[in-house]
Amino acid sequence: MKKLLMISMLLFSTISLAKTTTITFTDQMPTEGNLVLGVYEGGEFGPIGQKLDQNGDISHAIKAAAFTAKIDSTQLIVAPKDSDLDQILLVGLGQKPNQEGTKNSALDWQNIGGHAIQKAVDTFKTPAIFAFDTDNTDALANLAYGTKLGSYYFDKYYTSNKRIKTQAEITLYAAQATAAQKSFDNNWNPVANAIYHTRNMSNEPANIIYPQSFVDVWTDHLKGMKNVKIKTFDEKDMQKKGMGAIYGVGKGSARQPRMMVVEYMGGKKGDAPVVIVGKGITFDTGGISLKNPSNMWNMKFDMSGAASAVGTLYALAGQNAEINIVAIAALAENMPDANAQRPGDVVTSMSGKTIQIRSTDAEGRLVLADGVYYGDVTYDPALLIDLATLTGSVGRALGKDYSGLFTRHDDLVDGFVAAGKASGDEVWHLPLNDNHFKAIENEVADVMNSGPDAPGASAGAAFIGTFVREETKWVHFDIAGVAWGGKNQAHNGSPGSTGYGIRLLNEYILKHYSK
Length: 515
Ligand code: BES
Ligand code: MN
Ligand code: ZN
Known about the structure:
This protein has 16 helices and 17 strands. It is an alpha/beta fold. The protein folds into two domains: 171 residues, Leucine Aminopeptidase, subunit E, domain 1 (3-Layer(aba) Sandwich); 281 residues, Zn peptidases (Aminopeptidase).
């Protein structure tokens, strides 16, 4: 037994995820190498730019190249001869802040940082130093955050150094380096680290991340964090608790289902928590209702909701937020097998409600049925959120720009739309009405998981809502379109996982629940 334990511990430790970019502020003027220099519209820049421009070389270059300095614009120039620098990448900062402060929003600063690092990595083969030349601490912290997010790349499996696409250590110049570093480390770095880890988890293939290894890797990562407790239900616990819906999905796989429950109780004792439940299908073949092969490999991302749920908690815990949060990862692998469930099977969920399986490929709503019910009745939450790569149809409707938001509590919509705009993880409100609930009524069982009148994203939302008490404030996000595969994103330098949901929920939860 002991030997087995040792061997399995050795196995866990072989899952080492990709590394995190570090951000260091310095008040030392850069003297060699390549420089990334922020410039405002009209050609203004801060102390570093002024120092380098003593002979007017930079101003001349800006004029000669008709560089506008609008946000997203860049221009590569040769450094002045009498500096010891090589090249300078000019980066547009938009309009200069006036007396009232900065004109750019937090997200503008973040995107400037993200584009700048991506352009710098493309342009220079060696690391560059960044001098955005603003002395606004908030702006600097946001620039650093954006630079870190934009620098993310999933290159863990490349064996050739030539293919490396990131700058592992980023140095930012700021006259007030200590203050900028502190602001970044306290407010944004925990969110950036959570997004890195969540993207890493989602990008890993399904032979590496399966229900138990998801639990192990997150447990390892959360180790030592204040106010954090973890419990995990295995397939036997599920049977005991009557969680027949998640158990049924996991039945066809050699990798058993798990439900991971993480509590971060940073708030007052007894304050109702925000509960976030995530769909954690570590691979979705469709089961007996098998998917087409062509894009099936993408279904390694079908656990993105669960990763972002725990990632959101990890960010808030890292920020020492005075809030109670519970993250629930509903984990299973959906495989076709002699033991797999079939279309027509009836399962009983933890709520007692019976479900006829119509399509084994509508498995996300099944694992969530037990996940949201458990979260609702165990914690009596102030707000219940679920994140799920639930339907292809939401991706076709909203593309890569928005997740779909569904709720019975329409008063929650505006707050989430605003949080989406502020954070960059945008949302679009989609309908949920009585017809969607009628469409999943079934003649054999209480409800069915799919059906002729229930193909869309709204019916999926209604199915999940069936397992949440009506009075509970509940919001469902269908993230099937946005969880991976965004192109040219300032906040993500990598193809693959976006870590969608962490920026959105960090913004929303801090705004509405922290004291
Ligand atoms: N994981 C898929 C949804 C999905 C598809 C996400 C493509 C991202 C890209 C989900 O489990 C699924 O198969 N949904 C079905 C539901 C249907 C059977 C009711 C779908 O959308 O086709
Ligand atoms: Mn499916
Ligand atoms: Zn799925």
